[in-house]
């Protein structure tokens, strides 16, 4: 930071005045000097001396006062820093948690315990990892119902899934994540791309098809379950750059996959109870066969 001469000058004058005052007054106590004049002792105050003031421009205002009266802003060199606000959930959480902890320390007896702070932070983290929930407003609903309509719908759904199925021989997403972490090899996470893209294409495809109104709930359950697993896999890809976010999604991964299984079973059950039957050449029958073999 660049020093301002006026500031340093004012400081020097102030210090000099304080030192002088302490010297002659000893904190306000006037010292007396005993003088003996022809046997008489008298107490007299010491002779005072004043600081000589200067007025270079002869305008009647002392230089020290002009120095303090000036209103020009103090020039400070710009502080350059490389700090950037974190753009990952891990970085944001670390910064927010630290700030909350420091502020909390200032509340004294009214402060929250560390456990309370952690519980609150955990709740906020879970909220940030929440998924978009698709609703009836996001899909096209068919007013027509009946076994034939439901039959066609089932084949459309199966067709979307089969066309975007993960290639045979692709390693499971959890196995890929475990391998990458075990060997500290971030490059292995690129193997998750094909799985993520598969789920992403399926979600997009299912949002685009027409859905019988009677199957709207089951269809949305399936879409939202697929979308949740897709987001879990997307978070796994960030294991080295945003590990806290990855951990949050991995913790819910098993629940999400179970939710996906239940969504498929519920859709099949409702259609079967309505009398929908698929032949060997129907895509839906092929999909069920694939699922049973996995």
Task: Please count the helical segments.
Answer: 10
What's the total number of strands?
4
Name the helix and strand elements from N-terminus to C-terminus, one letter apiece: HEEHHHEHHHEHHH
Major sheet description: 2 strands, antiparallel
Shape: elongated
Extract low-pLDDT stretches. 1-16, 18-42
C-alpha termini separation: 68 Å
Task: Please compute the radius of gyration using only Cα atoms.
Answer: 39 Å
Total number of domains: 3
How large a portion of the residues is in β-strands, by DSSP E? 5-15%
Coarse structural class: mainly alpha
Biggest β-sheet: strands ordered side by side in the sheet: 1-2
Question: Helical residue percent?
Answer: 55-70%
Average of the residue pLDDT scores: 76
Please provide a written account of the structure:
- The chain is mainly α and 294 residues long.
- It folds into three domains: 1-26 and 62-71, no CATH class; 89-128, no CATH class; 136-293.
- The protein has helices at residues 5-25, 63-69, 89-105, 114-128, 147-163, 173-182, 193-208, 216-236, 243-273, 283-293, and strands at 33-37, 40-44, 140-142, 210-212.
- The model is unreliable at 1-16 and 18-42 (pLDDT under 50).
Task: Give a brief rundown of this model.
The protein has 294 residues and is mainly alpha-helical. It contains ten helices and four strands, in the order αββαααβαααβααα.
SSE order and pairing:
Blueprint: H1 5-25, E1 33-37, E2 40-44, H2 63-69, H3 89-105, H4 114-128, E3 140-142, H5 147-163, H6 173-182, H7 193-208, E4 210-212, H8 216-236, H9 243-273, H10 283-293
Parallel strand pairs: 3-4
Antiparallel strand pairs: 1-2
């Amino acid at each position: 930071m660049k020093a301002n001469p006026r500031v340093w000058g004012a400081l020097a004058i102030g210090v000099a005045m304080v030192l002088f005052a302490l010297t002659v007054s000893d904190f306000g106590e006037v010292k007396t000097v005993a003088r003996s004049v022809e046997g008489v002792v008298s107490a007299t105050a010491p002779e005072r001396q004043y600081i000589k003031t200067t007025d270079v421009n002869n305008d009647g205002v002392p230089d020290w006062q002009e120095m303090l009266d000036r209103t020009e802003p103090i020039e400070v060199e710009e502080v350059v820093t490389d700090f950037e606000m974190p753009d990952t959930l891990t970085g944001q959480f670390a910064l927010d948690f630290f700030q909350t902890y420091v502020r909390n320390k200032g509340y004294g007896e009214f402060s929250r315990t560390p456990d309370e702070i952690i519980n609150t932070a955990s709740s906020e983290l879970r909220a940030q990892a929440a998924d978009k929930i698709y609703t009836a407003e996001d899909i096209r609903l068919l007013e027509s119902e009946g076994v034939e309509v439901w039959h066609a719908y089932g084949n459309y759904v199966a067709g979307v899934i089969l066309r975007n199925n993960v290639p045979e021989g692709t390693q499971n997403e959890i196995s890929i994540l475990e391998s990458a972490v075990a060997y500290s090899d971030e490059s292995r996470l690129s193997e998750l791309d094909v799985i993520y893209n598969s789920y992403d294409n399926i979600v997009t495809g299912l949002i685009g098809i027409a859905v019988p109104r009677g199957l709207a709930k089951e269809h949305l359950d399936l879409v939202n379950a697929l979308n949740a697993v897709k987001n879990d896999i997307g978070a796994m890809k960030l294991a080295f750059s945003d590990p806290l976010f990855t951990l949050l999604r991995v913790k819910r991964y098993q629940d999400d996959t179970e939710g996906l299984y239940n969504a498929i079973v519920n859709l099949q059950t409702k259609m079967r109870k309505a009398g929908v039957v698929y032949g060997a050449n129907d895509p839906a029958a092929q999909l069920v066969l694939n699922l049973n073999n996995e």
